[in-house]
Specification:
It is globular and about 50 Å long. It has 205 residues and is mostly helical. The chain has 8 helices and no strands. It has helices at 8-24, 29-49, 54-57, 59-80, 86-104, 115-137, 150-165, 172-199.
Length: 205
């Protein structure tokens, strides 16, 4: 199933000139990763402290797009400019999980949004990324199988925050969107696990 992640090569091509400029100015891959995580935590705290301020939620889709760009940039800096490191790999994986939790968990405090669905979604999302990484441990590659990976989650939560931010009252549409995201995340978890095992020779895909 096609996912937003499939657009990554084209997105990276658009960002490549910016990467060259960042290298000239001494920006590092780890610096970009840590900056993205820091801003994500800060925005999450602002939302958590002001759960009734719908206008703040409008910052979420904007930041999620910028964070997606920063995630692409740090990867290209590492691969294409000799900045790969073991520490960078840890920052990259851990930073994504921390940023997701920091940004999405505060939405459970927004009136009318089902907190159980939000928490379950964050927990399942962490499990999805963990399976993707564990695939390496069992002899496979880092798995990014869909249909609801990191970029797709960002789109889903960005849409949710956009609708809430423009004043749409939470209701059946909000519950429905969260449940669709939950089901797609669960399917992604199963897909990554199956493909990881198949790649490692454990099962037939």
């Amino acid at each position: 199933m096609p996912t937003i992640y499939d657009l990554k090569p084209r997105f990276q091509a658009l960002l490549r000139p910016l990467n060259a400029s960042l290298v000239r100015h001494g920006v590092t891959a780890n610096g970009v990763t840590l900056a993205a995580m820091t801003v994500s935590i800060a925005l999450g705290l602002v939302i958590a402290l002001n759960p009734g301020a719908s206008e703040i939620l409008l910052l979420m889709p904007v930041w999620l797009f910028l964070r997606m760009a920063m995630n692409a940039i740090d990867g290209m800096l590492a691969r294409e400019h000799g900045m790969q490191s073991s520490l960078g790999a840890i920052f990259n994986e851990l930073g994504d999980v921390i940023s997701d939790a920091a940004l999405y968990l505060p939405l459970a405090l927004v009136a009318g949004v089902n907190p159980v669905s939000v928490v379950l979604l964050v927990v399942l999302s962490i499990m999805v990324e963990m399976v993707g990484v564990v695939s390496i441990q069992i002899g496979g590659s880092r798995r990014y199988d869909g249909p609801f990976g990191k970029s797709d989650r960002a789109f889903g939560f960005g849409l949710l925050c956009l609708l809430l931010g423009i004043g749409l009252i939470p209701g059946g549409w909000c519950d429905g969107l969260l449940w669709v995201m939950l089901l797609l995340t669960l399917l992604t978890l199963v897909n990554r696990g199956r493909h990881a095992l198949a790649e490692a020779g454990g099962i037939q895909s």
